[in-house]
Amino acid sequence: MSEVWVTIIVLTVATAVIKGAGPVLVGGRTLPPPAMAVVAVVAPALLAALVVVQTLGAPEGAAFELDARIAGVAAAAVAVSIRAGLLPAVALAAIVTATVRALA
Questions:
Q1: CB distance 97 to 72 below 8 Å
Q2: Is the distance from CB of 101 to CB of 68 less than 8 angstroms?
Q3: Which pLDDT does position 96 carry in this prediction?
Q4: pLDDT of residue 50 exceeding 80
Q5: Any long-range contacts for 66-73 (C-beta under 8 Å, 24+ apart)?
Q6: In whole angstroms, what is the distance from residue 101 CA to residue 69 CA?
Q7: How far apart are the C-alpha atoms of 86 and 80, rounded to whole Å?
Q8: pLDDT band, residue 67 (cuts 50/70/90)
Q9: Which residues contact 39 (CB under 8 A, 6 or more apart)?
Q10: Which pLDDT tens digit goes with each residue over 22-48?
């Protein structure tokens, strides 16, 4: 078995243990308010970080490049800021990105 498969198996088991540890450790109790406040902001922060990396990140050794993805993310940000909803924001981002790429 190659090192890659061993790594995949170890990470799969570790993920299952981590996911199972939460309910076992908490056991039906509610978390304290400070912990809940942290949990509430972790997912949006991770999503925002992923969006930034995918939008602005360049392949290793490549120069930083502004392209159609930035226009799409900006359009989605505007849609979210006016409370248009997630699905319309994603659709608008896709339309704007495709349009900018077609015009470029």
A1: yes
A2: yes
A3: 97
A4: yes
A5: 67/100, 67/101, 67/104, 68/96, 68/97, 68/98, 68/100, 68/101, 68/104, 69/97, 71/96, 71/97, 71/100, 72/96, 72/97, 72/100
A6: 9
A7: 7
A8: confident
A9: 31
A10: 777 877 778 788 988 888 899 889 888
Chain segment 1-13, per-residue pLDDT in tens: 789 899 999 999 9
Q: How many CB atoms lie within 10 A of CB 39?
A: 10
Token readout for 57 is: 């990140």
Residue type for position 28: G
As a whole number of angstroms, the distance between CA 1 and CA 60 comes to: 30
Could you write out the DSSP letters of every residue in 20-62?
HHHHHHHTTPPPPHHHHHHHHHHHHHHHHHHHHHHHH---TTP
Residue 101 makes CB contacts below 8 A (sequence gap 6+) with 67, 68
